[in-house]
Amino acid sequence: MDDLLFRQAMGTFSTGVTVISTEVDAKTHGMTANAFMSVSLDPKLVAVSVDHQASIYEEIRTARRYAVSILDDSQEEISKTFANQIRGKEQFAFATFRDLPVIPDALVHLACDVVQEIAAGDHTIFIGEVKDIEVNEEEGRPLLYYRGAYQALQ
């Protein structure tokens, strides 16, 4: 099977959209990710899959911490910024949660410590123990991704 067919098939699984972020040497780093999931309730674990070519890959390995910002449907432009589809990532004004950079007004912020790395092909899955959670009290709807396009709940 070819790569395009595989991508198309995986694109039929709709996902939420997150920005994964960390800080190393007082410099913030962020990446849009839809390869994110909850892993365990006890202990509270989540996972994110990061391409070895992504700039944030080494930063997470160095920091041993990352934040997850679950985006709402008004934050499509932010997602595109951190997916390197539009410019502005360097000047983005992050908020801070538990000494980690996060996306302001996201639906949820998670502060995680890396507890395990699993090499998986050209990616590494970073298992993070959730140290704290912040849920936005405003009513919001998640930003979704399906078949290569952003979607929103109706």
Write up what this structure looks like.
It holds the Pfam family Flavin_Reduct. By secondary structure, the protein is mainly beta. The protein contains three helices and twelve strands. The chain has one domain (16-144): Electron Transport, Fmn-binding Protein, Chain A (Pnp Oxidase, Chain A, Roll), CATH 2.30.110.10. The strands form three sheets. A seven-stranded antiparallel β-sheet has the order 3-2-6-9-10-5-4. Strands 1-11-12 form a three-stranded antiparallel β-sheet, with no helix packed on it. A two-stranded antiparallel sheet has the order 7-8. The model has no long low-confidence stretch (mean pLDDT 94).
Return Rg in Å.
15 Å
**N-to-C span:** 35 Å
CATH architecture: Roll
Task: Tell me the CATH topology.
Answer: Pnp Oxidase, Chain A
Poorly predicted spans: none
Mean pLDDT rating: 94
The first-level CATH class is given as Mainly Beta
**Strand order in space, largest sheet:** 3-2-6-9-10-5-4
Question: Order of helices and strands, N to C?
Answer: HEEEEEHEHEEEEEE
The secondary-structure class comes to mainly beta
Number of strands: 12
